[in-house]
Amino acid sequence: xxxxxxxxxxxxxxxxxxxxxxxxxxxxxxxxxxxxxxxxxxxxxxxxxxxxxxxxxxxxxxxxxxxxxxxxxxxxxxxxxxxxxxxxxxxxxxxxxxxxxxxxxxxxxxxxxxxxxxxxxxxxxxxxxxxxxxxxxxxxxxxxxxxxxxxxxxxxxxxxxxxxxxxxxxxxxxxxxxxxxxxxxxxxxxxxxxxxxxxxxxxxxxxxxxxxxxxxxxxxxxxxxxxxxxxxxxxxxxxxxxxxxxxxxxxxxxxxxxxxxxxxxxxxxxxxxxxxxxxxxxxxxxxxxxxxxxxxxxxxxxxxxxxxxxxxxxxxxxxxxxxxxxxxxxxxxxxxxxxxxxxxxxxxxxxxxxxxxxxxxxxxxxxxxxxxxxxxxxxxxxxxxxxxxxxxxxxxxxxxxxxxxxxxxxxxxxxxxxxxxxxxxxxxxxxxxxxxxxxxxxxxxxxxxxxxxxxxxxxxxxxxxxxxxxxxxxxxxxxxxxxxxxxxxxxxxxxxxxxxxxxx
Length: 504
Description:
By secondary structure, this protein is mainly β. The strands form 4 sheets. Strands 6-8-12-17-21-25-29-33-37-41-43 form an 11-stranded parallel beta sheet, with no helix packed on it. The chain has an 8-stranded parallel beta sheet with strand order 11-16-20-24-28-32-36-40, with no helix packed on it. The two termini are about 35 Å apart.
């Protein structure tokens, strides 16, 4: 577990980043550049801009590496939706950072568009494993667009272009291509880049706030943080009263992420946000509240269509999708359609989907990878309380010490139904093929693969039963029907076991 120390000291991080980016056969289908992303995904009012002919009076030679200076103007355009400010060079992108940081009113709320790929530093900044390989003394340091005092409030369209060679190495907060944004950022890739900072650090945006939107971002960047709220794409989302909900749509991360607390493959920490169609392939390492998609997710949130393929390593509250989800005292959010295929390693509160879960709704989730923990370890939920969980399955093996289960390590006073587990479950105390410790739960349609004399519950203290099935029984169309409408039978996938309808 000593590897997360990498995230604590910047000097160590510069020398020690060699984690391997996890991948799977699914990566090939998602390994597109932003030019292939096209439309927004599930948010129909956000779309990629098509390529336009540049006006004759546009100035700037694209394709050159940044010389470290700042342009005095954009290439052309008037900043309107029909005539956005055009950015052709790295110097012009640096100009955007300058005018936002200076709060120049002529550029507030305006439209900006990349019309070429941007090269901030030449050569390899990171290697194929995410390790830093450049000479830092020869790199131009990027100043993020927006900072702790000023947020970008306009509309930035990357138009499918790439920003590469970005180098940030600081202990301050609000780091990324954009340091702080309350506007719209879309259709941009950041690759071959190194971002190391304090809290609120991500490759694309350090901090989103209010009604900010991020659509179709792709990151192939190594991200490190020595504070809370660090993510492969976004560091943190900041709620702003009232009725303003942030959105992240169709985000993909392939880079390694390492920090202390509230660390995620897509975003480190958020509340009052909608996140849809997100995928992580990078390795995520931290200490507390560590998730393949989100580290810490609270209150009035919706996370849908989330997939993790990267290894996730933490110490407290570690999950393949979310490290901590919910709120201690009231109904908080919904997770719908989530899949984990990356190995999960933690200590207390470790789950293939969620490490620790309170007062939330979780629908149509699945884990297909091994989970290794100590206290409260499970294929889906390490610890779940006062929550609704429905339509789910686990095929991964689970290893822990106390409160260990195929579905949940500890399950208290919730409503749960339509679940099956086929994985091996091993531990020392309160170990069950379905639930380690079950207390006062409303339960229906629970099934497990019979494995010798092992029981479905370590201790069932009021609340439902689970039914054993053989392999042949589980690999049948009738079993999928028995589980309910959200399951389907596909003999050629999932080793013949039923899958969820959204996985088709």
